Amino acid sequence: MSVLAHDQSYRLPVTKAILPLLLLCAATLSPQSIAKTPGEVAIGDIVREATLQGLNGPPRKLSEFRGKSLIINLWASWCEPCRAEMASLDRLAWLEPGRHFSIIGISTDDDPARAEDWLKASNATINQFIDTRLQMENMLGASRIPLTVLVDPAGRVVDKIYGAREWDSPESIQLISAAFHLRVTRPAPK
Fold it and tell me: What is the share, in percent, of the chain residues with pLDDT greater than 70?
């Protein structure tokens, strides 16, 4: 038998040395510690001007959406969660609360043709743009997608929601209504 098999005293110093390293690693994996993207606009700050290249319409300046609350959804054609939530954004645009805000999508695809092909197949109706130069992706903090950013009428970022969701669900409508200070009446039960 080896000396280590009989002597357990070596475990305590090794454990004390490794434990801080493990805690440091765990801390770096927490959502709060994810690195910001270059030039990211924080919640509470105003989005900078940008020209958006149209996928299903003409180019537009981001400032053209000022004066009305705005929902910006960043997605990619290869991202299954992004694709899964797209239809709910279209349905949200047609619901009564949708008259209080605009909804746009911004593809982070490198190849505009792939994004256009997927949009045609999905029958998306909201305004869609492409961000091949990472301008909006970095400004809005899309370190992972899908990312949906809520922007108030003055252009101030109110919230950032990472991950897919059903945007026309009562929970999502409540989240949007609270963020934009909307008074939304619920439809009468059937």
Answer: 78
Q: SS3 for 184?
A: coil
Q: Where are the alpha helices (DSSP H) in 38-143?
A: 80-94, 112-122, 135-140
**Per-residue confidence (pLDDT) for residue 33, from 0 to 100:** 39
pLDDT at 104: 97
> How far is Cα 156 from Cα 62, in angstroms, rounded to an integer?
12
Tell me the pLDDT tens digit for each residue of 81-120: 999 999 999 999 999 988 999 999 999 999 999 999 999 9
| 45: helix, strand or coil | coil
State residue 84 phi and psi, 5-degree precision: -65, -35
Tokens 């949009």 correspond to what residue? 119
- Please state, in angstroms and rounded to a whole number, the distance separating the CA atoms of residues 55 and 137: 16
Q: Are the beta carbons of 161 and 135 closer than 8 angstroms?
A: no
Tokens of 13: 């110093």
pTM of the predicted structure, to 2 decimals: 0.78
Joined tokens for residue 79: 């991202």
Residue type, 81: P
